[in-house]
Amino acid sequence: MKKITIAEMAQHVGETVTIGAWIANKRSSGKIAFLQLRDGSGFVQGVVVKAEVPEELFATAKGLTQETSVYVTGVVKEDERSSFGFELGVTDVKVIHEAKDFPITPKEHGTEFLMDNRHLWLRSRKQHATMKVRNEIIRATYEFYNNHGFVKVDPPILTGSAPEGTSELFATKYFDEDAYLSQSGQLYMEAAAMALGKVFSFGPTFRAEKSKTRRHLIEFWMIEPEMAFVEHDESLEVQEQYVEHIVQSVLKNCKLELERLGRDTSKLENVKAPFPRISYDEAIEWLNNNGHDDIKWGDDFGAPHETAIAENYDKPVFIVNYPTGIKPFYMQPHPERDDVVLCADLIAPEGYGEIIGGSERIYDYELMKQRIQEHDLDEEAYAWYLELSKYGAVPHSGFGLGLERTVAWISGAEHIRESIPFPRLLNRLYP
Ligand code: 4AD
Ligand code: MG
To answer: Any residues with Cβ below 6 Å from ligand 1, and which?
Structure first.
């Protein structure tokens, strides 16, 4: 018997095939049993008709418990009623392992319970769909950067420097030295850009943020492109093309998954470059004129501010040129103003918040040295970084996209915890 996956069924209509699967759910009457089968590649209904199979087989099918693993054999049939388009007319079932009392049943469960059972919860339809969307974003990311002449570079995870400020670092011992888990690979990516031109990284990022919001993880994955000879406005164009590419790829390649997630895809279709740009100054002014008196020039935006601004647009919006004082040490000053820097945050629609932070970088040696001192950074640890502006310094820009916030937005998740297989949260290291 030919062994195939559920995803391959379309190529085997009319054939008898065997699929290794789990029983996601089951319904049966005296005459017919409907097996909801899943095999990782997809979900499909298996139909066991009492009158058409041996008596023991029907009894076995009726007794199958949730998450029991089986080899199921049957005829692939087209089925217009299911969105998947196929079903399996079952002719044989071999039980591999009988699962008893699977803790996650089709009834409603509380979030903490589901999170405690994350290792099992991943099997459910919605979680499966979210992981497929995540995978498509990752695939489209590599596609985009490979098609645009970028080289993938892997910065270290154990580091001695802190690009985004020292307050949120995970410290660890590196033999006799102090080290930190990477909170951004950017500084290393700048060195790599001076060697390879256009580079991108994709790796784990650690932030000991004591934030318990639906947008914050302690461990998340970030994509960090860095480009030599690229100025701030040119970097924004790369960002909007990249975000367009991932959204349009998910729309094209994850139709079933978005449907299973109940995602309103009309809100994603319009995500095409160019995206609107407003300045930080304009954003503050708009907020103050629209009922947000709790923020003034020089403050950072909170989630409600970002959400309110994003509601004015049906695409992500760039907020550009933030005050120098609320941004990291490495950002290039505005050419005509000394109070703002050449940077942008990209704010996703529908309240998902900042998905990209980026900027042009300082490349003047004296200014960089001054900033390192002003920010009280350990000059020895940053000596190598400072040398980048000593030997053939050039304008360069880059940015970081948070994978999980992007997954949460595109899949329409309520909380970021469902956008990563095993979330690390303020109070959660298990499972
Ligand atoms: O704005 P951030 O801190 O920028 C940087 O780290 C720069 N060094 C990137 C660069 O220019 N190469 O972080 C970038 C993105 C944010 O926009 C957000 O999407 C995500 O990383 N992010 C988080 N995602 C989940 N949980 C957290 N705690 C996050 N902190 C940042
Ligand atoms: Mg940021």
So the answer is: 163-164, 184, 186, 207, 209, 216-217, 220, 222, 224, 354-358, 398-400, 402, 404-405
Residue with CA at minimum distance from ligand 1 atom 24: 402
pLDDT tier, 312 (very low <50, low <70, confident <90, very high otherwise): very high
Whose Cα sits closest to atom 9 in ligand 1?
400
Residue 105 clears pLDDT 90, i.e. is over it: yes
Gap from CA of 325 to ligand 1 centroid (Å): 18
Q: Is residue 166's pLDDT more than 80?
A: no
> Element (H or E) spanning 383, and its range?
helix 383-387
Q: For residue 230, what are its two tokens? A: 């690229």
**CB 334, CB 377: distance < 8 Å:** no
Res. 167: pLDDT tops 80: no
What's the 207 CA to ligand 1 centre distance in angstroms? 9
The tens digit of pLDDT for each residue in 200-250 reads: 999 999 999 888 899 999 999 999 999 999 999 999 999 999 999 999 999
The closest residue, in CA terms, to atom 11 on ligand 1 is 399
Cα angle 357, 166, 332 (rounded to 5 degrees) comes to 45
Task: Report CA(229)–ligand 1 centroid distance (Å).
Answer: 23
Average pLDDT in the chain: 97
Per-residue pLDDT, averaged over 83-94, amounts to: 97
**Residue 212: its pLDDT value, please?**
87
| 72: nearest Cα among 40, 43, 95, 98 | 95
Q: Which ligand places an atom closest to the C-alpha of 161? A: 1
| Contact assessment for residue 52 and residue 62, using Cβ atoms and an 8 Å cutoff | no
CA atoms of 26 and 45, how far apart (whole Å): 9
Q: Whose CA is closest to 397, among 287, 290, 237?
A: 237
Closest protein CA for atom 1 of ligand 1:
357
In this prediction the pTM is: 0.97
Averaged pLDDT for residues 269-276: 98
C-alpha 328 to ligand 2 mean position (Å): 9
Listed in sequence order, the residues at least 6 apart from 200 whose beta carbon sits closer than 8 Å to its beta carbon are 145, 150, 151, 152, 153, 189, 223, 224, 225, 226
DSSP letter at 32 equals E
Q: Which is the closest atom of ligand 1 to the Cα of 207?
A: 28
